[in-house]
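RETRY 2/3 - previous attempt timed out on the joint model. Re-submitting the same 859-residue input unchanged.
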Amino acid sequence: MKRRALALLCAGILAVGMLAGCGGSSDSKDSSAKTEESKTETTKKSGDSTFTVAMGYMPNSLQPSAQSSDDLVSAIRPIYEPLFAETKDGLEYYLADKLDISEDGLTYTLHINDKATWSDGEPVTVKDIKFTIDYGVLAYGGPTSFTKVNGGDVQINEIDDKTMEFVLPSVFDNYVRTLSQFYPMPAHAFDNDPSKIDDSTYFKTPGMATSGAYVVSEINEDSFVYTARDDYYRGTPSVKKVVMKTIGSGSTKQIEFENGGIDYMRVTSAEDLKKYKEESDKYNMYSISEARLNYLQLNPHGPVMSTLSQDARKAIFLALDKDAIVDFAWGSDELAKPANSLITPDQSIYNKDCKGYNVNLEEAKKLAKSSGLEGKELTYIYNSDRANMEAVATVVQQQLAEIGVKVNIESCDTSTFFPRFFASKDKEQATTWDLGTNGWDSQRGSNCGQAISYFTNRLCDCGYSDEVSGLAQKAMGTADAKEKQELWNTIQDKALEECWEYPLTYTNFVMVSQKNVTGLDGSSVVPEFIDYLSIHVD
Amino acid sequence: MWKYCLKKTAQVVIVMILISFFSFAIVYFAPGDISDMYVNPEMTEEQKANVIAQLGLDKSMTEQYFAWAKRAVHGDLGVSLSNKSAVWPQFMQRLPATIILMGSSMILSLLLAIPLGLWSGYKKNSWLDNLISSLAYMGMSIPSFWFGMLLIIVFAAVLKVLPSSGMHTVGNVSAFDTFQHMILPCITLSIGHVAVYIRYIRANTIGQLSEEYVLTAEAKGDSQTKILFRHVLKNTLLPIITLMGMNLASLVCGSFIVESVFGWPGIGTFAMSAIGSRDYPVIMAYVMLSGFLLVVGNFIADLLYAFVDPRIKRGGASGGK
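RETRY 2/3 succeeded.
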């Protein structure tokens, strides 16, 4: 009996151990980067304007160059600025106030805004840009897209504290895009030594020097709290606090929004769109072009597709009805519109007259029969973490059944989708699927954006001929605007003729906000470039 | 006893080696190439090869495994691929949130399961027993993510009485606020545990009630309540030692699903995002930690059992003869 009592005691000790763990949490909390003082600061007072944004998970660090997910991008945007952003109507300047490109297209001169300062009062200078570029090289263990173009080194010259020059080895249109994705880090915080960044807790601690409209005042277990800067070079934000808080998965975000726990969320279904529109007394709606193309890729190395001819690919393209796909998967043309080209309307090189493909079932059936496609089974993969992609897969499956093609759909999460979708041809993964849907976003401005990686088969082998690849390379290296546009018109037509990528939809980023929140459409770039100066919370 | 402990310790070591090897193999053979995360299209082939060699990714799986194991034995679990920070401090940062949630859930489970299980066993085959058993089966059958969503809809969306997500209201660090945030995930986690515990306790109670010492107590004129709570309870709870030992791992490692559904900032959500980004140092650390705690929890339970019931110890010893 004594033994049993002792065993119960031991079990009790086990339970106490568990409780001790709970007790230990308070110690850890103390060590977490927050203070009672800062906690008190965030207590909502009347008249405080706070804008609350949802995150799917809590990033470990706010280091601006480590933007590995949409959540991290959203968390960083209020505190770290890009040099500029590409929009449909040109460049929207942030830390830089001018970008000059020489007539020969080789020299990019970047002027940093004279008034731009870090939140600790230090000016933003070219040293910060050089420091961040050096960190990239160090982190990657080799050249990055900032330092190497078309196989040649980019010469980077510091003209003065606020002017920097990038001399390209050859014309490369997309360098504007490269620079637009650049978020400088404060060199002075690391004694100008980029090797100190990775081992540092600097970007995990409140008070880090920021270049954006806010400073980090709290880092909690499940949220970040940012406070407006009075010395922000573009003006004083009207929203005094921005809270980034983690919200659970599934429909929790929507519930949290409807309970007023977060101030805005994205709407991706026609049902929700209708619902929130009907409640216009409670909510505001915004719709901004996402500059995104969703496309269907035919895999040249697919188990069946690799054995079929161009006619078979054409049969697939002719069997697809884009309007039906939009109708079923998105349910509203406010959320997505059928695409006619592999370039988006937000890119100046977009050709609105590009014919694309229109459904022609009879022709598709004939081609399917003559090319041997009829009766085949194709493997279709899609990213289940992307909104509406499952519905697209279902419609494509039904439409291809009309021409006698059986489509086996495989759902993949992000971590398994991309290694398969972008597997290089020498890897086994490349041969495991025939069809796949994906999209590329933020396709804005005067260059072709991500499309170049596809037309030149650089990211993966997309199947394009040497002719299309050559034309794309030539267009990228052409400084003359007229000649460039003609080349891109040709490429858009030829790319579709080769029948490897089928343009599905151009999507809109539709948001719903609480009624007291306005100005979310103040920026033409979403979701990562919301201009926080334009946001107001009454 | 020492011989028994040594034998069990050797088993723990072997199991840990097997867990580490197989989990490493799973990550190694997962779709896609890990080296793709480290190289970029601007690198020359030589530079790519250098980076891959520096990371040791050019070596065979066994070579990579032994290099990882050597570092792990020295307490170095590596650096996260996605955020370039050491893995262990990140675990430590999230551990308190997980322990608070899982510990509370475990305590709640025991507080509910003990009286219900005892009562169910005591009133065997009565309508009360049938009701409790039915509820227990339901509890075991309900998927936790579904039950979690149901609770969120009822208590957060419809009644609006409890928060649906997170651990704190921003700006409010009171224990009561954390308690409010913890209610729904805690209930979600407990529902499955309670159901299992009830079944164990019920079965043990029925067994114990037929023991002679119960008859003796009855003959001595002890009341049913006294017999049940003073004598039967102590013996009935012994198997719970095993269950608690097994739950030691989940106490520290959290729950992927429940933490994700409720946006709880614990180790479960951290591991979930690591799996999403194929952050293998974090995945390995998570698997090793949970495996280690599971094995150690069972080890402690075995020791306690051996201590309590000498037949187990003797059986172990005679088995070697």
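The longest helix of chain B spans residues 87-122. Closing ticket.
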